[in-house]
Amino acid sequence: MKIPFVKEWGSWAVFISSCMAALMAGLLTSPWETRGNFAQGPALAILGLAFLINSKNPLASILRTKGQKKEHLLWLLFFSAGGTALLIPFLIDGFDAFSIFSILVLSYVTLLHKGKEHNLFTELNGFALLTLCAPVVYFTMTGELSLKLYAAVLLFFSAGVFKVRVRTRKTLKYRSIMALYCVSAVIFYYLLDIPVIILLPLIENIISVILMKEEKLRTTGYTELIKGIMFIILISFFWQ
Predict the structure, then answer these.
(1) What is the pLDDT of residue 135?
(2) Model confidence pLDDT, tens digit, residues 45-62
(3) CA 44 to CA 169: how far, in whole Å?
(4) Which of 1, 58, 174, 182 could crosslink 75 through cysteines, CB 3.0-4.6 Å?
(5) Which residues of 125-154 are buried (b: 16+ CB within 10 A; e: fewer)?
(6) In this structure, are residues 89 and 134 in contact, taking their beta carbons and an 8 Å threshold?
């Protein structure tokens, strides 16, 4: 039996990097001083979120086939139920605080239903869901919803969506949007009182749209992975 795991490794890289960034930010608050077994909550949350991410493929298959294949529904129920069960400790305390983010889930499902899986807005919506794991993991460690951390992680990793568009389309339009996005991210960081130095890896985005050297998408993926690691390191040093 073929298990419908999500095979977009870029999505997993964003998910893992966002979780790691949250862990680094959470550790800076010394959670062991205020919360008992502070490691169990983040571990269950990360595993539960991974299950929910894998529910995307069977959901998309159900929408494409209009529910004609029972196996897609069974996989959707398996991943959804498993993820929800693992997230119960988080949901008990955080459901009310995080309920507003259900809008992202509903909008993403609506876009998939309309067949816009590869639409730019759909991809940004998907990244908004992937990076939502950061405030979730942070909440399980500290008991606080950090919209500031969510904004920091979302703004950084969403740049990757535009980076891939630039590489696949190679148009002046997307090159300009990429540059404008990076400048806007710096402005938002400043307004939200987030250390701008955390955005240092995005310098590569600006350089890439100026030089526009030919490179394979795999190379772009490795570059984005390295930038994600740099982001985590910068969070661990400069988050406040």
Answers:
(1) 97
(2) 999 999 999 999 999 888
(3) 39
(4) 58
(5) bbbbbbbbbbbbbbbbbbbebbebbbbbbb
(6) no
**Contact (CB, 8 A) for 11 and 52:** no
Residue 22: closest CA among 133, 129, 100 = 133
129: closest CA among 147, 154, 110, 112? 154
pLDDT at 205: 93
pLDDT in tens, 11-26: 999 999 999 999 999 9
Residue with tokens 């730019």: 120
Q: Which of 97, 113, 100 lies closest to 56, judged by CA?
A: 113
Structural tokens at position 87: 């997230």
- List, in order, residues 6 or more apart from 39 with CB less than 8 Å away: none
| pTM for the model | 0.92
Alpha-carbon span 88 to 85, nearest angstrom: 5
